[in-house]
Amino acid sequence: MSLFVVLVFLISFSVINLSAAQDAAQEAEIPFPCELNFANTHQKEAFNKKIVLDLTASFSPPQTFRKAAEKYIDENYIQHNPHVGDGREAAITAFATTFKGTRSDFTGKVTTDGDYVWIHHKVVTTSGQNFAVVDIYRLNCGKIQEHWDVSQEIKLNEKFANAQPFF
């Protein structure tokens, strides 16, 4: 087989795969190819920030979170919270059970750096517990790929040593 025939085959195969990937990206409302679709880093970071804020706003009720998770969380995403399993379905299950009724009550800061978004916010549970939480997300192509979090309980009756505790 000649080198020309091999090159034609490889180019044809690449074009077919590129077309299928573009079709899939359009169905998911994700710009394709996402790495090249942003004019600058600021535009990409604003896009990622909006995804995280939309997901955070959907924490309660569970059916709202499910819809947002299906749109924004990759099905194979990596979870670093030791109480939640890996994958989109594990996150959906956690918000339907363990975190049911949990809501983000106040957002303090949101910071972006390329594919990473940090959100520092107040989370309130159904039992009335308040937590200062930092969620860290890594995104790629409009999907959350990875998540870390740290939290600290806010005891409302506690006296604080400064005027700006937690936020």
What order do the helices and strands come in, and which of them pair?
Blueprint: H1 3-27, H2 41-57, H3 62-72, E1 73-79, H4 88-96, E2 103-113, E3 116-124, E4 130-140, E5 143-154
Parallel strand pairs: 1-5
Antiparallel strand pairs: 2-3, 3-4, 4-5
Helix pairs in contact: 2-3, 3-4
Identify the notable features of this structure and list them briefly.
4 helices, 37% helix, single chain, 30% strand, globular, alpha+beta, 167 residues, 5 strands
Structure explained in plain terms:
- Helix content is 37%, strand content 30%.
- It has helices at residues 3-27, 41-57, 62-72, 88-96, and strands at residues 73-79, 103-113, 116-124, 130-140, 143-154.
- It has a 5-stranded mixed β-sheet with strand order 1-5-4-3-2.
- A hairpin with a 2-residue loop joins strand 2 (103-113) and strand 3 (116-124).
- The protein is globular, with a radius of gyration of 20 Å.
Structural class: alpha+beta
* SSE order, one letter for each helix or strand: HHHEHEEEE
Which geometry do the CA atoms define? globular
First-last Cα distance: 68 Å
How is the main sheet built? 5 strands, mixed
Number of separate strands: 5
Q: Please tell me how large the radius of gyration is.
A: 20 Å
In terms of DSSP E residues, the strand content is 25-35%
Task: Summarize the model shown.
This protein is an alpha+beta fold and 167 residues long.
